[in-house]
Amino acid sequence: GLSQYSSDPRTEWDLSAYSTRDQVLEAMRNLRYKGGNTFTGLALTHVLEQNLKPDAGARLEAEKLVILLTDGKSQDDANLAAQTLKNLGIEIFAIGVKNADEVELKQVASEPLELTVYNVLDFPLLSSLVGKLTRVLCTRIKEKSNKESADIPVNTGPQLSPTDLKISAVTSKSMHLTWSPPLRPPKKYRIVYYPSKGGIPKEVILDGAVSSLRLSNLTSHTEYLVSVFPIYDTVVGDGLRGVTSTLPLSSPRSLRVSELSHNSIRLSWKAAQGATQYLVLCSAAPDRAED
Fold first, then answer.
1. Which helix (H) or strand (E) holds 104?
2. Terminus of the chain with fewer CB atoms < 10 Å: N or C?
3. DSSP string, 31-81
4. Cα–Cα distance for residue pair 170/246, rounded to 1 Å
5. CA 90, 68, 41: angle at the middle one, nearest 5?
6. Which residues make Cβ contacts (< 8 Å) with residue 201, sequence separation at least 6?
7. pTM above 0.90?
8. Residues 160/230, Cβ–Cβ less than 8 Å
9. Residue 227 contacts residue 152 (beta carbons within 8 Å)
């Protein structure tokens, strides 16, 4: 599978898209380069949520490997997103080109770093890594496969997926989430939320025995996208998604004007709930405006 990223990650093809080497190489030849920013953390989150799902071809019994190719320093927190993947047993190889930050590559990559971190001065030099990287990847898969003996069911569906996401008690700065757990209890839940019109995703990790959460410190009058993902030892189940808007802040009401003089007026109004201060703006009305 392959995804490109800048400020918005884009899946080029899923794990289940092609079944032969020639098909993958043909897809690579037709790939159109995506320029732009370097939001590596958002890209790793995209890979976890979109590309490593059973629906995208990720088999529960298969080892999960992510190869990150980047030519710059991330503009968001790549380390936090990478740690989430690594905590799920997903192995990350980090390859830097040109202006990549080697310190960041080492933070993102899995141990041992001498096998998982590579850095070259320019794109043509990537060809020199292919042979070694192929051998390392195949060896790591064999090593990990031999260690894993747990019998993990291949069937997903409701067994690994929570249902019935409900969003309630919505205020101008908070909301409450509840959901029904899957038949097979997860190890943890990962809740991701962010404004639908753009914003840095935030996440909360919960114990798998918990099935509710209150989100706070939200922005008023804003539509939020919310996702709930069940996390197991070797896979992330299908997530629940919901959307809702926080309420606008309450407004003052019933503005009244009294005690007019040649250079003063008195204003009074009904208070806005929760307001700690008021800003009063006053300007002369334009000519011919209502007195």
1. helix 102-108
2. C
3. PPP--S---HHHHHHHIIIIISSGGGT--TTS--EEEEEESS--SS-HHHH
4. 6
5. 80
6. 42, 45, 192, 193, 194
7. no
8. yes
9. no
